[in-house]
Amino acid sequence: MAAEADDGRRELPIKLDGSLQNPAWSPDGKLISFTRFRKGYNEEPADVYVLNLETGEVAPIAADGACNVSQPGSTWCRQTGHIIFSSTRNGKHDEIHRWSPKGIEQVTSSDTHMAYEPSWSPDGKTVVFESHPSGKSGHGAIMLKNMETGALTDLTGPERDCRQPNWSPDGKWIIYQEHKGRSWALMLYDVGAKTHRKLDIPGEGTDATFSPDSKHVLYSGEYDERDGVLLAVPVAGGKPRPMTRGKGYHGAPSWSPDGKWIACETSPKDPDGGKGTKLVLIPVS
């Protein structure tokens, strides 16, 4: 890894141009998957890669010229090592795919709806993802797909605009963000009780994932008049704790399985319209 900065952060040694985004830890903490947007922040085409933290090797998973996008959080299947991601490789629109050493398999298929932002359940039997009518970005629905039966379940319905679901490591919660008014609220779905509630935080939150013990939500939000700060808050709600210091944008965080590091994307300023982001590890203190 690169040398540590004053705050202990380490830039991941990835020699790829473009914008590096959406880091996600493998279950054993030895690998990190990520998305590389070739032309800049969220500018497709995009590729999915895996970084070996021990050797520094960077290997492509999906780099075929399509828009291939993996997510932070629960991207790896614990049981099989499959990596879940979205892709336009079918030539129509975004659908969910999974990678294994044997190849890439398409998981969803619809003529009317796009599918992206996927996340595995801890038992590997279900995938949660974001769905939109084809060609439209609004009115996102949070969907479940049973990987054994193929059954689909709409968790949020057509009247809401919900995005970026992520499963907790203990399987009890799905966190997602909902567009309410002019801001984004973080919402928690209780998988057992099948109920939804708003996570009590000041301001808005995006890019939410979980701590490895499932007791905290990690997200990008507002703190001390700064935007793009990584914050951790108990699942029950409460006062968020800042996990990053200094200026600049931090987003798409993933907490390491051993609880010692947070991987995230970062840039000196808001990356929208800019050259892009790099990936760093930030120590948890």
What does it look like?
This protein is mainly β and 285 residues long. It has a single domain, classed as 6 Propeller (Neuraminidase). 0% of the residues lie in helices and 49% in strands. The chain has strands at 10-11, 19-25, 31-37, 46-52, 58-62, 83-87, 95-100, 103-106, 113-120, 126-133, 141-146, 152-154, 162-167, 173-180, 183-190, 195-198, 205-210, 216-223, 226-234, 241-242, 249-255, 261-267, 278-283. The strands form six sheets. A four-stranded antiparallel sheet has the order 1-23-22-21, with no helix packed on it. The protein is globular.
Short description:
With 285 residues, this protein is an all-beta fold. Helices cover 0% and strands 49% of the residues.
Q: What Rg do the Cα atoms give?
A: 17 Å
Largest sheet entry? 4 strands, antiparallel
> Helix count, per DSSP?
0
Number of domains: 1
- Unreliable segments (pLDDT under 50, ≥5 consecutive)? none
Structural class: mainly beta
Helix content: under 10%
- Name of the CATH class: Mainly Beta
Spatially, the strands of the biggest sheet line up as 1-23-22-21
Strand segment count: 23
What is the fold-level CATH name, i.e. the topology?
A: Neuraminidase
Measured by DSSP, the beta-strand proportion falls in: over 45%
Q: What is the CATH architecture descriptor?
A: 6 Propeller
Sum up the overall morphology in one term.
Answer: globular
Give the overall average pLDDT.
94
Return the string of H and E elements: EEEEEEEEEEEEEEEEEEEEEEE
Compute the separation of the termini in Å.
20 Å
Going by CATH, the homologous superfamily would be TolB, C-terminal domain
